[in-house]
Specification:
Elements (H helix, E strand, L loop, with lengths): L1 H34 L4 H12 L9 H29 L3 H30 L3 H14 L2 H13 L7 H23 L3
Helix pairs in contact: 1-2, 1-7, 3-4, 3-7, 4-5, 4-6, 5-7
């Protein structure tokens, strides 16, 4: 009889563990369904991007925003580093001017993302969450501003790549989830 009880206890434990995993995974999937209003592509981008961070398995909606901001910050830093490498080898005064402007914009973007991250880490306070959303709005469009500067000031295409432009997608994703949290009163 004791082996049967032990076996049933193990089965119950396994079922509870599986249920917990499913519940956590569904938070990510449910959130991505809610904010993926642009269709399957938005949903897939959301799940792929946030799911790449192991912490997403345990995160609530606000935790998913924190993950998205962390990814956005890493992307902005990587692009800033790439711009610095381009600056180091640039000989054209016009391109150098545009690269300087882009470098300044990305440095500011990293600072804004850092402040948004601090506001989100404070959690619950609606004023801080609203401030984080405002900062994310400022970040949105950073790659496009750099692209536009190249066209206007240097008369050529931007050296930014698709990877550099992912900043916008991740920032918009963070904003959508954060707005959902604010609308639902998630604290």
């Amino acid at each position: 009889m004791a082996p049967l009880q032990a076996l049933s206890s193990v089965l119950v434990l396994l079922l509870l563990t599986q249920h917990a995993r499913t519940a956590r995974a569904s938070t990510l999937e449910d959130t991505c369904r809610l904010v993926g209003t642009g269709g399957a592509q938005d949903y897939d981008f959301c799940v792929k991007t946030l799911g790449a961070d192991p912490a997403s398995a345990m995160a609530d909606e606000l935790g998913l925003v924190v993950i998205a901001v962390k990814i956005a910050m890493a992307t902005a830093k990587a692009t800033g580093d790439r711009i610095a490498r381009l600056q180091a080898s640039e000989t054209s005064p016009r391109r150098r001017l545009v690269l300087d402007e882009c470098a300044n914009d990305y440095a500011l973007t990293v600072r804004w993302l850092g402040r948004a991250s601090m506001d989100l880490a404070a959690g619950g306070d609606e004023d801080r969450l609203t401030e984080a959303a405002t900062l994310l709005e400022h970040v949105r469009g950073t790659p496009a501003r750099c692209d536009k500067a190249f066209v206007l000031w240097a008369g050529e295409r931007t050296p930014l790549t698709d990877a550099d432009h992912e900043l916008n997608g991740v920032t918009v994703l963070a904003l959508k989830i954060l707005r959902h949290c604010l609308n639902d009163g998630v604290k």
